[in-house]
Model the fold of this input.
Amino acid sequence: MQYTFIIAFAYALFPLLTVRFADRIEREWQVCLSCAGIALFGILFSMQSPELPLIIIGAFQTMINAWVSFLTRNSQSGLFPTRMRVRAVGILYSWDRLSAIFTGFVIVWLLGQFGVLAVFNFVAGAMGMVVVSVALFGPSTNNLAVEEISH
Done:
């Protein structure tokens, strides 16, 4: 329980840290950095057994997960014109939740067949695809109005 408390506490602190750079770095690069962080810290986490590295890496993983969560929601809304923004973001969020159902089954299968490291390698591969997609196709966002981003 102590591990969980410390790691969960980090989840609440990270948004306070990101306030300092949230608008200074392009959102697309923040998404890329956070997804790369999920891949890196996830693989590192899966290879630990001593408690101190587990707590430290788990806290970083949790903070990076928080970062990608609020970043993707924020970034998605800028991709669509105002007249369709709410509906488009709702559809994206619905697909996200639907895919989470199937991802859970894939993760359970990987865990049973190949172990913890395979699960984190799977997640790292998915994050790698996000990084490549966003780096290639993500729009610039700094100093632009929402309507300018969506065009």
